[in-house]
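hey so i finally got around to running the thing on that chain from the lab meeting. sorry it took forever, my laptop kept dying and i had to restart like 3 times. anyway pasting the input first so we r on the same page abt which one it is
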Amino acid sequence: MSALRPISHALAGALLMTVSAAAFAQTKGGGFIIDMPAAGTPAPAPAPDAAPRAEQPAVQPSIPKAEEPSSRMLRAQPLAGDGEGPDESALRYYAQLGQMERVNTEIERLVRLYPGWTPPIDLFNGAPPGDPSEDAYWELFAADRIDELRAAMNARKKEEPNWQPSKDLATKMRRKELRIRIMDFWKKGKWQDLVDYVKADNYNADDADVEMLWTIAEAFAKTKQTNDAVSVYLSILKSGADQPARLATIQKAMANLRMADVEKLIAAGRYDATGRSEFAPIMVDIVRARISAYLHDERSEKIPDPELEVFKAYAKEEKDPNQPGLVAWYYYKTKSFRDALDWFKIALERGGDAMIAHGLAHSLRELDMRRETEEVAYAWREPLVNNLILFIDILERDLRSNFRPSSSPSVSPATPR
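ok and heres what got predicted. didnt touch it at all, straight out
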């Protein structure tokens, strides 16, 4: 780095006035920001007092919020683009009857509605169907004409008081009605209504598929009913859900809950004979969330070295500067300033923003590399006012430490006349 040119006392005073005005224009008080600033927008910070004052503590860095887990995980919502996955009930019914023309027609319909969907491999392994006279009901069911289906069934009950729909039809109809109502609330963002409906319905987890359970858990989380959300996620892990669904459950939980609550779900995971967790495939996501929790004082334990190494190996190859930046802020918080410096450099080389430079400058300062600190803070003063404040703070201290008042000349006593 090139050395800074000497700056006069007058220039220092002018800079002090500039940063005071800039900071006052952005905030009316409070501590340093903890969010990554928007591009091109200076981040707020308290204005330093330009007047002479007693020695103040060194300017402290503003550790930014770590990247939200949701930005790199599955969204906490049903998988299908419109919020509702394919219902294969009618398809399976036709397959059980051996009605291949209807099977093919239903497959074509589902493929049109859900691009990328493929027929289940166990399509023809279902139990034999119930009453063949229910064909008309299954057609209404497949077309999502639930109101007409309910009316037709009620009409038949009036004619045949002892008639009951087959268990398969009754179960799947209830499941579809539950799904329709839940997805309607979800699409409209009516989280409290969704929760109230689920509780009033006294639903059973067996009545809901995994996607519905994810949505119900999200609603509980959105309405601050954390224990209920955890219970729903746990019900998935304790069920026969397949591995992709189990991994997605943890990812969705990390997007909706505090990491302390997610740890309860991770603890319920399975381990193989070698002691490897079933959640190892998403360990990078888990460690990222744990680092974020640590940075925000939501976790007191440091990240175990083996886990940290997993994330570091990922971050070292990742082009996104926020990933090595997260490692850098973690090391800074644990006071491993040399490691923090190295990782801030990596993040900055990959296009890190002014907040990364802010961390780099503070790491340099902690290592007593004052000239380098000044240069970094000054170079990044415009995108983030915190860097300008840091530069001024260091400059003031240097000026005060280097200023030595000159001694007054001695005055000889006057000789009396």
